[in-house]
Amino acid sequence: MKTRAAAVAGQFYPSTPGALSAQLDSFLPSQKKEKAIAALCPHAGYIYSGGVAGSVYSRLEMPRKIVLLGPNHTGIGPQFSLMAEGAWRVPNGLLPVDAELAGRILEEVPFFTVDETAHEYEHSLEVQLPFIAHLRPDASIVPVTMMPGLIEYLEKAGHGLARAISSQKEDVLMVVSSDMSHYVPDSTAREKDRLAIDRVLGLDPEGLFETINENRISMCGYIPAILMLYAAKMLGAEGGRLVSYDTSASASGDKDQVVGYAGIIIK
Fold it and tell me: Cβ distance 53 to 131 under 8 Å?
């Protein structure tokens, strides 16, 4: 069985189980749990975005099966890269790939490609895993990274993913990994990010695509977010809620060049 080793432990989050667990606990206040169809969480270093991510994860009634959708920052591999078997190791756990669900997704979305190379060094999905392992140690995952493409493919993929999820006998959560605006003034990030966030909350994939491109918003995970929105609508989602928003200025003090972070729950 292929085990994907942690690539950014010690950089984005602590590399030892004890230190990691303590930091995760600090990001996870006691909250009333709720079922969700999907969530959007940031993937920066935990000192910057861990609080926003934790505000989402602390509210989720975490199912055992989770589909992870994230951007491909490295440019390695095909446009849509799905890891169909094996496991991912992080300091606080080992999460197996759900081979059965992965197979169903591949049946429904034939242009998804089975590929491991895109995942070897990509941080966007890995940064979500310590939260998941901490809250649901028996979780299984289906990791998918993607690069920009035509919106028509995203609609087809989203509908196919929804059909695959509907075929399962238990609940499945989609987690989109995305930061928002990159390296702009704090006021600009907040203004532009709100435009994109409103499209996500309104379950408007076409509007998100247009808003990102028309306003040149550097939301790195907008492609997986669009795919998720198509799937969520087909799965009966009624709307989204912004749980938390922040920028890197809160940690760094630098308001001239920030990255934005949004935490959203889709129900």
Answer: yes
Q: Which residues contact 109 (CB under 8 A, 6 or more apart)?
A: 80, 156, 157, 160, 161, 164
Core vs surface per residue 177-198: b (16+ CB within 10 A) or e: bbbbbbebbbeebbebbebbbe
CA 61 – CA 243 distance, rounded (Å): 15
Between CA 19 and CA 110 the distance in angstroms is: 41
Distance CA 10, CA 45 (A): 10
Alpha carbon distance 147, 31 (integer Å): 35
pLDDT at site 152: 87
pLDDT tens track for 197-234? 999 999 999 999 999 999 999 999 999 999 999 999 99
Q: Where are the domains of the chain?
A: 33-266
In the block, tokens 């446009």 appear at 79
- Provide, rounded to the nearest whole percent, the portion of the chain with pLDDT above 70: 100
pLDDT digits (tens, 9 = 90+) for 84-138: 999 999 999 999 999 999 999 999 999 999 999 999 999 999 999 999 999 999 9
Amino acid identity for residue 172 in this structure: V
Q: Among all chains, which residue has been given the structure tokens 């695959």?
A: 164
Rounded Cα–Cα distance for residues 183 and 204 (Å): 26
The CATH T-level fold of domain 33-266 is Protocatechuate 4,5-dioxygenase; Chain B (3.40.830)
